[in-house]
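User: For this week's homework, look closely at the record that follows, marking any run of repeated tokens, and judge whether sequence predicts the tokens.
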Amino acid sequence: MKYKNLLLKSVGAAVLISLGDYALLKLGNPIGPVIFAFGLLGVCYMGQNLFTGKCGFLFEDKIPFKNLMLILLVNLLAGYLMGVLFSFCDNDVVAAAVTKVSGWDISLAFFLKSIMCGIIMYIAVLMYRLGTPLGIIFGIPLFIFCGFQHCIANVITLGVARTFHWSLLICILGNFVGSLFMWYISKEEKKERKMRK
């Protein structure tokens, strides 16, 4: 039963992020990045399992690593399938996805952009946990406008384009590193906040 709940919440997260990614592909700048925030707002307020929202809290929440990997796997599979479903909805969205994927590469720059996205995702979720959605509302458009890379959004785009790109693996690692880096440097501030209470 425990794993059933984890799996369902991981599928739910992928569905919510896919709605945001579809809007991004359909509407483009500047409206798409703003609407995309709906996806993470839904994930947080509905308590769904999104890899990029969980990995920075791996140690803090004592998440078993195998559970985190299961969340990632389900996010990726469900996200790709949602993308494939969307590919039947609108040829313009497919064309936008193909164009987007053609700009990805396996490079240090792509890895750094993935790290930056991980940092923003950690801050956005942390701010939500502290009682404000502003980190999500501003953070999601921020990473999109800056061209930073989000692995679950990217796998959805790959599904829409009905293709695969190895940069996805770099993106996963970069998101993970960025989130954990931000968690590490924020540890002391959290200790101080607890002491003040």
